[in-house]
């Protein structure tokens, strides 16, 4: 009898390991399938996105750029939500892309005006990742089901990320003046709206001569001054 109980216990352990291995295999298959779905989508954006999304980028103490993609404010009930974010520059590498709900045992739901994390209902979901450069593009994939769990919806969108403080600003063009400096000549009365002046000098009533005078156009007029 003791031998039979021991044998049954061993069989249960073996069965549990087999189920665990099968679950891991299914998860890996799903993960790979989602990566391929994002790549095959060719950065096409879904026409309707039933939630809000946001991106933030910070710089950590190691000099790496940490990004966070958040989805929130669902416009419809979204059950069993799964989300994955891919850095386009890392496609084809052995990097593990950030995700939520894909390899987790926990189920995540986004329902309008409902938030109870203990029951699996969240106000927002977020994926975090790291980039070595301050500018990069992210492909985001979100999949969810309806209440029955039978109908699946897939959403794709893209985000151009940058850490502004470390992105070099383009050099601004400068206008050279007549002496070749990089200072733009100040506008005066004779400069037009483009900053370009004419060759007409300024004349006034003080420009008086006994045998003639300069008129308002800078032309010499014989005779008495006006």
TrEMBL record:
GO cellular component: DNA-directed RNA polymerase complex
Residue ranges of the region described as Disordered: 177-211
Top-level taxonomic group: Bacteria
Protein name: RPC7 family DNA-directed RNA polymerase III subunit
PROSITE patterns: PROKAR_LIPOPROTEIN
UniProt keyword list: DNA-directed RNA polymerase, Signal, Transcription
Keyword Signal: yes
Signal peptide start-end: 1-23
Biased composition (Acidic residues): 185-210
């Amino acid at each position: 009898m003791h031998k039979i109980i021991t044998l049954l216990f061993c069989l249960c352990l073996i069965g549990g390991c087999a189920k665990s291995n099968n679950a891991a295999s299914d998860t890996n298959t799903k993960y790979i399938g989602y990566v391929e779905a994002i790549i095959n989508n060719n950065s096409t954006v879904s026409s309707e996105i039933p939630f809000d999304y946001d991106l933030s980028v910070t710089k950590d103490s190691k000099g790496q750029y940490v990004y966070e993609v958040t989805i929130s404010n669902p416009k419809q009930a979204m059950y069993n939500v799964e989300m994955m974010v891919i850095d386009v520059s890392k496609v084809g590498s052995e990097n593990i892309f950030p995700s939520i709900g894909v390899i987790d045992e926990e189920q995540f739901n986004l329902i309008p005006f409902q938030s109870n994390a203990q029951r699996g209902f969240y106000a927002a979901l977020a994926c975090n990742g790291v980039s070595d450069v301050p500018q990069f593009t992210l492909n985001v994939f979100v999949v969810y089901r309806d209440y029955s769990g039978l109908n699946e919806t897939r959403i794709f969108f893209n985000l151009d990320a940058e850490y502004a403080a470390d992105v070099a600003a383009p050099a601004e063009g400068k206008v050279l003046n007549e002496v070749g400096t990089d200072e733009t000549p100040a506008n005066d009365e004779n400069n037009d709206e483009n900053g370009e002046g004419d060759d007409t000098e300024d004349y006034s009533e003080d420009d008086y001569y006994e045998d003639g005078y300069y008129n308002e156009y800078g032309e010499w007029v014989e005779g008495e001054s006006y």
